[in-house]
Write a structure and sequence with these properties.
The chain has 419 residues and is mostly helical. The protein has one domain (13-35, 45-67, 81-397). 61% of the residues lie in helices and 0% in strands. The chain has helices at 13-30, 43-46, 53-59, 85-97, 101-127, 131-135, 138-143, 149-164, 168-179, 185-198, 202-225, 240-249, 258-265, 273-298, 308-318, 330-337, 342-365, 374-397. The longest helix is centred in the N-terminal third of the chain and has 27 residues, at 101-127. The chain starts with 12 loop residues before the first helix and ends in a 22-residue tail after the last helix.
Length: 419
C-alpha cells in the first residue's frame, strides 16, 4: 500500500555522514579567528568569520548561570532572551559546559555538528544520494555554526521521515520540538497536514496537529507559569513567545531582506514598522496562495507535502527579516523536491555571494575596511531573489518530484477553483 519511493541509494550512509562532518568541521575552523570574541579590529569582516554564537554568550547573560525566562535579565542595552525556549536552553547547556568565548563557540559547534549529522541521516533515508546536496552545500559550510538553526532543521527533516513511515505522533512531536526552537518548523506542519487530507487519511492529519500543538505547549507552558508573577510578569507576559514576537515585531527590516533595499531607495515604502509588518504578512499569504493555485491548475494531483517549497520561498522573499542562516531551511526541501542540480547550484552561488558582499559592506560601513560599496551587496541580494523566484516557478512547472512522502495509491486531486 505504500507509495513512497526512495532515490537510488548509490552512496553509503558513511559517505554522507563523512561529507557532512567535513563540511561543518571546516566551516567551524573558518570561524576560528572570531571564536576569541575580539571583534574590535574588524576581523569578522576581513576574514568573513562572523558568528552570532560568540557575542550572544554575553548579550544573553549566560556566563553566570542565569536560567532563561525564569531568571530576569539585568538591565542592558542589548536584547536578552530573544530566542524561543529550546534555542535559549541549547545556549544555556553550552554555557554550563564552557563559559569562555572559545569554549562556548566550540561546544555549540559540536552541538550543531550533531544536528547536521541527524539531518543528513534523515535525508539519506528519504533521498539516498540526494543527501549530498545538503552535506556538501556551501550554505552548510558558511552557516552551520553561525546560529542555532540546524536544531530546527534537524527536527523538521526528522518529522518528514517519521511522516513517511506513518509515525504521525512522532512527526508531530518533532514539529513541536522544532517550533519550540525556531518558527520555521511550524510552516512544515501545513504541507504535511494537507498531505494527509490528500491521501484520504484525515486521522493522520489530526494526530499530527494535536501532537505538534501538544508538544509545543508542553515545552512552553512551564515558562509561562513558573516565573515570579506568572502570566503577568514583564517582559515575559504570556510566555517566551510573546517576548519573541514583540521583539521581532518591533525590528526594522533586516539588511538581507528585500524590505531593507526598498526602504533605502524608496523611503515612502516604510511609513512605519507596523505597515511593513502588515504588508509583509499580506504579501506572504498572497504570493503563497497564487503559487499553490497556479500549481493546482497545472497538476491537480501534485503531492501536497511539496507546498513546503512555496511556503519557505515566499516567506523568505516577503519577510522583513532574512537572517543569513535562514538559507539552511531550504537545503532539505530543495534536496528532496528539485529534479536536477541547476537551480540548486544557482541558489548556492548567489547565497555565497550575499554572504561575502554582506560582510564586505559591513566592513566598509563601520570604517574598518576599504572595500566595494553597498551596491555590490544589493546586486547579490537581487540575484538571490531572482534565483529563488526561478526555483518557485520551477516547482510550479515541475511535473515530477524525485521523492514521494505519500502513502496512498490514489491521492485526491486539488479542486481547481478558477477555470
Amino acid at each position: 500500500m505504500r507509495g513512497m519511493r526512495h532515490a537510488t541509494r548509490s552512496v553509503s550512509l558513511f559517505l554522507v555522514l563523512a561529507c557532512t562532518f567535513g563540511t561543518v568541521a571546516l566551516g567551524a575552523a573558518s570561524k576560528a579567528p572570531c571564536a576569541t570574541g575580539h571583534y574590535g579590529d574588524g576581523r569578522q569582516y576581513r576574514y568573513l568569520c562572523y558568528t552570532d554564537v560568540v557575542p550572544l554568550l554575553g548579550t544573553e547573560q549566560l556566563a553566570g548561570g542565569r536560567l532563561p525566562f525564569l531568571d530576569p535579565c539585568a538591565q542592558s542595552a542589548n536584547n536578552c532572551d530573544e530566542y524561543p525556549v529550546l534555542t535559549m536552553y541549547l545556549m544555556r547547556v553550552a554555557a554550563w559546559i564552557q563559559d569562555t568565548y572559545q569554549g562556548f563557540f566550540y561546544t555549540n559547534a559540536a552541538m550543531m555538528l550533531g544536528f547536521a549529522l541527524l539531518t543528513a541521516w534523515c535525508l539519506w533515508l528519504l533521498g539516498g544520494r540526494r543527501a549530498l546536496w545538503f552535506a556538501l552545500a556551501p550554505t552548510l559550510f558558511i552557516y552551520a555554526t553561525i546560529n542555532w538553526d540546524l536544531a530546527a532543521v534537524a527536527a523538521a527533516t526528522g518529522a518528514m521521515v517519521a511522516w513517511s513511515r506513518r509515525r504521525d505522533g512522532w512527526a508531530g512531536v518533532l514539529i513541536g520540538l522544532g517550533a519550540a526552537a525556531k518558527f520555521y518548523p511550524a510552516l512544515i506542519l501545513i504541507p504535511l497536514f494537507l498531505q494527509g487530507l490528500q491521501d484520504r487519511e484525515p486521522d493522520r492529519s489530526i494526530r499530527l496537529l494535536w501532537w505538534s500543538a501538544g508538544t509545543w505547549v508542553a515545552i512552553n507552558l512551564p515558562f509561562i507559569v513558573l516565573p515570579p508573577g506568572g502570566w503577568a510578569t514583564p517582559p515575559y507576559r504570556w510566555g517566551p513567545w510573546s517576548t519573541f514576537f514583540s521583539y521581532n515585531g518591533g525590528r526594522t527590516p533586516d539588511f538581507d531582506s528585500a524590505w531593507y533595499v526598498a526602504c533605502r531607495h524608496w523611503p515612502s515604502a516604510c511609513i512605519s514598522i507596523d505597515n511593513v509588518n502588515l504588508f509583509a504578512l499580506a504579501l506572504f499569504m498572497f504570493t503563497t496562495f497564487v503559487a499553490i493555485l497556479w500549481k493546482a491548475r497545472r497538476d491537480p494531483s501534485f503531492q501536497r507535502w511539496t507546498i513546503a517549497v512555496p511556503l519557505l520561498i515566499c516567506f523568505l522573499l516577503t519577510n522583513k527579516v532574512y537572517s543569513p542562516q535562514y538559507s539552511l531551511w531550504l537545503l532539505p526541501v530543495f534536496a528532496l523536491t528539485m529534479p536536477n542540480l541547476r537551480r540548486f547550484v544557482a541558489f548556492e552561488i548567489t547565497d555565497v555571494a550575499v554572504f561575502v558582499t554582506r560582510f564586505w559592506f559591513f566592513g566598509t560601513y563601520t570604517g574598518v575596511m576599504a572595500l566595494p560599496q553597498q551596491w555590490w551587496f544589493e546586486v547579490a541580494l537581487g540575484a538571490r531573489a531572482i534565483v529563488l523566484i526561478w526555483c518557485l516557478v520551477g516547482w510550479v512547472r515541475d511535473e515530477r518530484v524525485p521523492i514521494s512522502l505519500t502513502t496512498a495509491k490514489a491521492p485526491l486531486p486539488m479542486p481547481v477553483l478558477v477555470t
